[in-house]
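I'm stuck. Please check this protein.
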Amino acid sequence: MIDHSLVKRFRQEVGDRLAHQRRLDQANGLAAMTGEDERQFARALISQVLEEHARNEIGLGRTPPTVEEEEALAAGIHAALFGVGRLQPLLDDPDVENIDINGCDKVFVGYADGQELAHDPVAESDEELIELIQILAAYSGLSSRPFDTANPQLDLRLPDGSRLSAVMDVTLRPAVSIRRARLGKVFLSDLVGNGTLSPEIGRFLTAAVAARKNLMIAGSTNAGKTTLLRALANEIPAGERLITVERALELGLDQFPELHPNVVAFEQRLPNSEGQGEITMAELVRRSLRMNPSRVIVGEVLGDEIVTMLNAMTQGNDGSLSTIHANSSMEVFNRISTYALQANERLPIDATHMLIAGAIDFVVFVEKRNDYDRGGTLRRYVSSIREVNGCDGRVLSSEVFAPGPDGSALPHAPVSCLQELAAHGYHPGGW
């Protein structure tokens, strides 16, 4: 096991020396180092720092790192310094939304305007691409994640907040998909401004968060569920203690202490090569309830953690948030029932529906489509909000906001908890 605190410390030291050399070169009128020259110089600095560390350990009577440990530390420091290699320019481009890699030289980039274009290779070979992913997996997140023949699947969060998913050996060539986190520090007002929400839905959701309603955000892949979840979380008062539970750290609410000073982020831990040490999402949700949460936020529900999460919502943890994949706001209830059937509790459908009715207050459905009437622009927008009203053999609900002429949600039916929302500033235009 590599000491991640050492990687962080040495990365800072090497970075400081690298910056000092840049300043010296500039003062002496020398040309700036090329990217490759800078990497070579950094490797020399890393060796220097590790050699100093080894001498210091010997001087203190401790055992210095082994050759293998030094090599691992060096790889980690280099990865921390230079990000993701040739992918870095794409991650730095604010217009890039998605990066799909089907082997090192088959790269496709999706842009915010809906275009998808072929791009230059991101590595010299598939082996180099796998090595890059392995380094990222070792030093991203809270614990090292293997990516090899025995562990051919990987999900992690990159330093800039983007989500990476990779597979190998189950495809002819290694395949990688990166979902950019273009809007990290995002608010509901930003989503109103870009057309994702109408001003009225913005006021409605602001009041729902303030009134501590439990919200489930649904939609297809890449519809904008996580972005909306971040925006909703940023409406939570700074004085509340938040616990987030995710498969791979992505929300990053703890990165903005001015908004959320009291955050604990949980990340699922995968089993090691011997099949030991796994900590599941369901276990983390249960653990979160013992950590004095004001609200529990589950990044994405994909399995048996749903039962634990719904139980948490009915045990005084009002104001919880989560996301789920679904094709409509109504389908969410069937999707939850399917996950509950697969859980250890094996809840029958009628029991699951009772649990849903007691736990979820609103389902917010986000849609994504290419709007060819507007020149093929990619649109993301809230098309439906459904209120859960109770249970009578099935979940009873009403679509309080339904799709309008352009697909965006418009007021459709009265809200049963309107008095609570009105106390937090929501006054509907149509009712």
Observations:
- Residues 35-59 form the longest helix (25 residues).
